[in-house]
Structure formats: structure tokens, C-alpha cells
Amino acid sequence: MADHNPDLVIGEDGRARPRWATSSPLYIDYYDNEWGQPVRDEAGLYERLTLEGFQSGLSWAIVLAKRPAFRAAFSGFDPDAVAAFGDDDVARLMADAGIIRNRRKIEAAIGNARATVRLREQGGLPALVWSFLPERTPAPESLADLRATSPEAMALSKALKRHGFQWVGPTTAYATMQAIGMVDDHLVGSWRRGSSGVFGADGTLNAGWANVGHASPRTSA
């Protein structure tokens, strides 16, 4: 039961959430309304990949707090707009205290926007990312059960890199999969477990999603 699991906290609303999701109202809102919900539009996926890349080596709380500033700085994560960024934009972003000022990550975000635009000729970013949807998702009962990557994430990372994406290692790829609903890593007992519609509470892929991805990790795309 959730109230016997030390990694779950019962909120005043009676809902069980993992401890990490209860540290602030911002985290609670993100957990309740966004994390693990399906994202299948190009701009949404580009944003998640970008933010997860900026999070690398840092706390997600930092990125989440800076998200409005990121959206303003990166033109609402419109791939076409960011793909047109030049040296002046890099300098502007490096001077923007509202975001994480890491030149390599900024240049990767711009390069990834250009890769996103190029991918439209081969089906687009959503089709590529979701082609790695697994047949099953884990059923973690504690935070110790959570993994940092998966065979699908490793294959997705390789495919993205082949298409010119940067800062998309297996851990970043897996974090993106968690964020966009391709993996349901809500703890067993959490009120969000199985709520995305992609997987059932037991971890099996729901019928409506059976033809979206592939049952096994792909090594080419």
C-alpha cells in the first residue's frame, strides 16, 4: 500500500506521490499534470529534448524553475525559429541570466533545432522518437527500482545522434522517454500510475498504442 511505502507520500488531497514530486508546489503541478503524459508534437518533443539536455549534471528543479525564461529565450521552442539562430543569438543567450548559460548546451540546442527541421524529410521527430516505444514499461515499487536508461533509450540515443542531434546520450534519452509518456516510471501505488493511457497499471502497452512503436529496440532509423 502507498501509505506503507516510504518513497510515497500521501498529500492533503489523498493522492500518493513519490517524495521527489512533493518538494514544492511547482514540482507537484509538474508531476500531477505533465510528467509522463504523452507528447507527440514536434515542438513539444524538441522542448523536452532541449530541457533534458540542459538538465544534464544539474537538478531538474533548476530547469523547471527556469522553464519560462527558456521558452522566452528559445522562441517558444519553435524549431524553425531556433534553427535560424546565429552567433548574435548565442551571445544573447550566454548573457541571459534567466537560463543555464552553458555554451556547449546552447549550441547543441540550436543544432538540434536544425536537425529537427531536416528530419521532416524522413518522417519527422515525433515518428522517430515514438518508434522506440517499448512493449512493456517497468513497474517500480521504490525509487531504488528506477533505472537510468534502457535498451530502447540507448537505441534512440544512437538514432538521434545519426541524425545530427547532440547532447542526447542514453540517460538524456531515457529521461525524455519518461517525461513524454514513452515509459511509465510512476511508482506502483502512485495516483499517476497508468494514468497516461499508454500503459496499463501492470506495465503492459494498451491496445490503442500497439502500432505506434516497435516491440524491440531498433538499431537503425
UniProtKB/TrEMBL annotation:
Which key words are in the record?
Answer: Glycosidase, Hydrolase
Please list the GO terms describing molecular function: DNA-3-methyladenine glycosylase activity
Q: What is its EC number?
A: 3.2.2.20
- TM ranges are none
Any Pfam family from its record, for instance, is: Adenine_glyco
Q: What is this protein called?
A: DNA-3-methyladenine glycosylase I
